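Hey team,

Filing this mostly as a record. A colleague (T.K.) asked me to run one chain through the structure pipeline before their review meeting, and I want the input and output archived in the tracker in case anyone asks later how it was produced. No errors, nothing strange. Just documentation.

Input sequence:
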Amino acid sequence: MIYADHAATTKTSETAKRVMMETMDQFWGNPSSLHTPGQKAAEALEEARATVAACLNAQPREIFFTSGGSEADNQAIRSAAYLGKRRGKNHIISTAIEHHAVLHTLARLEKEGFEVTLLPVGSEGIVKVEDVAAAIRPETALVTVMFVNNEIGTIQPIAEIGALCRERKVVFHTDAVQAAGHLPIDVVAQKIDMLSISGHKFHGPRGTGALYVRKGLPLQPLIEGGAQERNKRAGTEDLPAIRGMAVALKEACENMEQVNARLTVLRDRLIEGLSQIPHGALNGDRERRVASNVSFCFEGIEGESMLLLLDDKGIAASSGSACTSGSLDPSHVLLAIGRPHEVAHGSLRLSLGEENTMEDVEKIITDVTDTVTYLRGISPVWKELQRGERSYVIQ
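Output structure:
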């Protein structure tokens, strides 16, 4: 099986698994307990916190452990919104291509009386800094823009938006779930106030995540109970998983330059090969995208059928976000970049990882080409397009 769905999840690294097993054997105490086993566990917990902080150029006390990116997004956005409300600000700015962990949280806040502006991104899938600047108002409490889009892989101008928000005194949050371990992150230099990450996107265990909160910003608890995470996230910390996430992030950051250089070669060959399929198109900007992501739309086919046929050929891919794979609706991200419904349904996301090879890429190109040809051969829509009864959307 060729696994090309690393944006959905990654295999837990051997380093992370080893550290998790060691932790279960050596640091089994409750970090909140005062006895020796508990204090040893507490020391290990703070060591992991320092490791994560160092990867982001943050301070350890600015890191709060969560169950993943969705929880971190929820807590960050709600905290910033309620802080703004106390200051008489009820306006939030985001983009139309955010993960649903952000969009659904914003929709809930709208029901609570907040006003939300979702900025367009254009066909390249990148928000314009000048659009963010124009949208900021005196009552703006928060700007939340994802670092890397999870479906089409486009990289947003985070440092520029961070500088703008700092100048305008607006809290800036970024969902960095697809960026952490894959792109350099410096919360100080990029002037980020809040940042969310998820362990299983960089070879850490599932069910782990972290939220960076710049010193001085109040954080609203989502889960009430004990005093863990400095009274901001109740529940006994899963120390083995947290330590596994921390070492996975460190390992990913240390190997980032080498891995990205290799993945860029594979990505570019994959784009080149799939571009030869008639009436297909790359989704998102050609250059400003992460090294691992290739997202295409093909006219005249249905994406779910393509995924099942590719799986039968030994290729694991996706049509977009794994979090919405059960939905029959076309991707909101593809609609936001201007793809019509019928084309957005024929999308394919291939996200590469360290274990993928050029041989894998060549097989993917061949099998995707054959699969698209087969599906078009049995598609009534494709036949109508060829007979001229419909107009091609992708030339």
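Quick notes for T.K.: The domain at 15-252 is CATH 3.40.640.10 (Aspartate Aminotransferase; domain 2). The first strand starts at residue 2 and ends at 3.
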